[in-house]
User: Fold these one by one.
Assistant:
Number 1:
Amino acid sequence: MSLSIRFNHIIKEFGPVRVLHGVDFALEPGRVVGLLGENGAGKSTLMKILAGYERPTGGQLVVDGVERQFADARDAEALGIALIHQEFNLAEHLTVAQNIFLGHEKKRGWLLDRRAMAREAAACLEQVGLAVDPDIRVSELIVAEKQLVEIAKALSRNARVLIMDEPTASLSPGETKKLFELMARLKRQGVTIVYISHKLDEMEAHTDEVVVMRDGKFVTRANTADVDRHQMANLMVGRDVSDMFQPKAPPAPDAPVLLRVQGLRVPGWIEDLGFEVRAGEVLGFAGLVGAGRTEAFEAIIGLRARSRGSIEIAGQALDIRSPRDAMRHGLTYLSEDRKGKGLHLDLGLRENLTMMTLERDARPWLDLKGGSQALERAIADFGIRLRDPGCAARSLSGGNQQKLALAKYLRPDPRVIVLDEPTRGVDVGAKRDIYALIHRLAAEGRAVVVISSELIELIGLSHRVAVLHGGRLQAVLDADQLTEENLIAHATDTHHTKH
Amino acid sequence: MQPTPTTPSTEPASKPGPKPAAIPGLAHLKAAGPLIALILLCIAGAFLNPDFATVDNLMNVLTRTAFIGIIAVGMTFVIVSGGIDLSVGSMAALIAGAMIVAMNALVAGANPPGPVGIVAAGIALALVFGAAFGTAHGLLITRGRIEPFIVTLGTLGIFRAMLTWLSDGGALTLDFNLAETYSPVYYQNLLGVPVPVWVFALVAIAGTVILNRTAYGQHVQAIGSSEQVARYAAIRVDRAKVLTYLLLGVCVAIATILYVPRLGSATPTTGILWELEAIAAVVVGGTSLRGGAGRIMGTVVGAILLSVIGNILNLTSIISVHLNPAVQGVVIIVVAYLQRGRR
């Protein structure tokens, strides 16, 4: 039995913000459908609606010809629709079998029927090709195995539609290959698979059809056989890439090296990382989730233990032990986790903006008036849109929060600024503003490091891109080598040079 | 390759949050809540007993408030930074005991200095002890990475037991002549206001300025609001946290210095339940136990409010004086209930 799904003018609003603007399309049963779109295009929100995690504000979700309104994920699951999260929904301390039957435990009378559950769990695990003992704890499994447990869990509940959000993001090439074999097998059994990924080569090789979303709308669909990955990229972005990015002015030939890192070792994350960034240069950092990019820079600013490595800022060898040391020597790092590490959401805008420079500006009492003036300037300079300058940072939208965070981390006037996923969760307009800001920072003679998982962004912004894989530097690509294929090949360690 | 954001993709000027700052009057009302409660309580007290609204009684209440109030000012820093200190009552008792033992020893020693010198030495010792205990708390919490609740629960027991051991279960009494010399620190009036009230006022003003007008005070609030964000923003989180416990230790020492001349003795019951009163004063004053924001003046009002309740119970026979801590317990729970979901 297969399920057919139809989205009928689905609208989703979070407060006053419309995220989905009436999405219409259908999923035919028993196919592998690739869902394409940039961050913020609304793919995940739509899939959460399909899997019962979110409720649409308007429109209908039609399953096998019947309009459905799911109260929660259990309702969707009962119909055979399951979403495999990027962050797995597994209880680490329970066993594989316990996880598979969590909330659906088999019982004999009042007691659990462990034997029946172990037997069925083993059958499900065999179906996904995972050879582990159902009685070991999930915490002992590696990422790829956990993902298979998630899929086994969905299958044990008779999933007919399987939604996979970036399933290969943290898998090795071998594991990825196995996952695609499993997907093909499931498809033959009539399971519909919705596959979300940024990896266009995987889309090309393993989907029957691609559906493209942009800015909360359905854009187009095509048989995978009829489009190549360049067309996919164009459909996703929907505009000329040159629209978003200004031409890159190369750094002056005699521009000094502002940040030089050599032989950096971060236990458990990074082995022997070395790179340098010059004044006026944007150095991109590419890599998969878990490649160690964030960890490398957290170690450089003294938030993580380094066991080896030297760091020089503007030619001066330094022993940086804390973010304060780093800041005093002209290096700041803006975290990818804006809400958890970048901004105090409960504090006001002025407090956030001036947080890093309080001591510098205090004489010895706080300079509240100077802070308020600085906020006015930042609102103008960074194009922060708000209703009330006295509000808490929480009430700003994602893009405006990010602009505030950028203003905060630029306030100490760093010579080297590291931006980790600077456009995560911001809309296209704010993105363009942030790109322009990055160009400007480089033009001012600062060294800029951009860590990003969006290849288009790295290619559009960077003079050079360093690619990490499994904690090791795979390559540093110059501007003329910057293609998505090249970056992906290095990031996944599938690049084989001829020499 | 990266989690797709759940953040909305379109960009409005700003989201009107579920709790808009649109009703500033309400926020002011909440901030003034403890003060209004205090005024109402005073009016009620004046009606219940004519002795309540006298200058003598007012000074009496404020003098009694000074001990808890000074400790509560230090406690505000600790709680705003997201910590807690349960040991303050035991710490006060131990510092009192140590002061008395040391001062008596100086009197009994060969070539004793004059009584003023001995009292000054006792005061200095109290401050050193307070700072040392506070620093020890701070280091155990930051370097040792132990929950503040556990560290100070442990020292609550240790300090109290040390005093009981020092006093052999009885009372430690200050030498009679020294007590004479020392007593003005508690009993003297300056411009009609008792010394402890002056000290309380100075500590409160200093606390307000430090918390609201210095970089350090902002850092304390930032750490309480989110320690992670503060760490990434190049704030020396551990140093700031140790300093909050050090400040509190010094406040406990100041309170003890004012308290010792009152009775001239320390017993195993000295300072019992002071932690309850100090934390209650902070919470009643509008500081959230989750940390992040607080007002010293709120704490001062909270401390006075609690002792006015005790004073009214003393002057009237509505309920037994022995139930005073129960009333404080009820007040702290009611205020915490009223503060729910304020953030």
Number 2:
Amino acid sequence: MKHGQRFNILTSLVAAVFILSLFSGIVAAQMPAEKNDNKAKFESTGKLFEGAKAQFENALKQFNAKNNSISKADLVEKTRDYLEKAIDHVISYLDTVKSRAELPENKGLFPFDASKNIDAHIAELQQLRTKVQQDSTTEDLRADNKQLKDIYARARLETRYDFDIILDNSIGKFIAKSDNVSARMNTQIQNFKTKGKDTSNLETISANFTNLMQEVAADQKKTEALLAVHTGFDNSGIVKNNTDALAFLKQVDDSQRETIKIMRTPSRQLQVFTREYRILSGRSNVTGQPRNQGNLRNGTTNRENRRNGTNPPTRGQAQ
Amino acid sequence: MKTIYIVLMLIIAASALGCMGKKPSEGTTIGTPAGTSASPTETSVSGAVTPTPSENTDFGNQSDINTIDSVVNDSSMDVPLSDANI
């Protein structure tokens, strides 16, 4: 091949790579924009809502103080505006939750049709908005306000339940992958041993990680037991008793919060293991001692330190 | 002249390949976790798992932790309706 031909080929290749990089940059820029549309809308409706709420509350104060026709007319106008903005904001919230529920990774996750439940509330809210726009007395608007609160209370409980299911699944994935992570850690330890390297730290970390993940898995089972009963919700994911549903969700929240808190420790163990692994494999420039070296060397684990009160509090203790 | 041209093309190619690996950062925090009478008591747990971005890719389940953080943040979204009664 002649020199000139090589040069032309090189130029063409570089041009092609450059064009491809532009394309991938555009696609990458679009993806997060689409994903954040709902969140941006929620923020935007939120600002309008807060402004309308402040004006409504001020108008109510004025009416209660003056109780004349002018303050009453102003109250009606501000109430109507507040209710409309509140409805828009709640719909925006529901759209955001729905988009989360419909993500590909959440497909088939729910034992009921979460999107359908959300759509039903959106339809209720849209009907209410039409009524609000037509109502002109404080009595009618009072009833509208009450209805809005009722719709939102139910929708909020149901979407919280949806989130708990999604979170339960995410935690479950983390736990499921930990077996594979443990196996890979052990494989690398064996590799280093055959090369005559000191793997005592890695073995300690790996053992700690495995034990802690067993604790996480055991804790997760408590949340799953609660979700299986779903007190206050029927099998379609619809709230049937607000009080029972609220109590149930609080229990699930507390349980999941505890599980995530416990997960923090094996997560850090993994980071320490990776650092040690990189040092031993020569992929790190770190020459000093890694963190938690004292804990690893004297055999104590973070779990033991937690019990001794030297780590963050566990179940039952105040944060 | 030809050498300068080659160097320029290589620089363009290098920067192009560098651009392909980048992903814009994504915000996950939104809304204020103000409770309403209908919502459970909420305390943020997003601080419970705080990944170190520069580490933990060889054995990582970091993406799962990030997902959990994201879900927790989204679940705290709320619409604080007015308590005032007409």
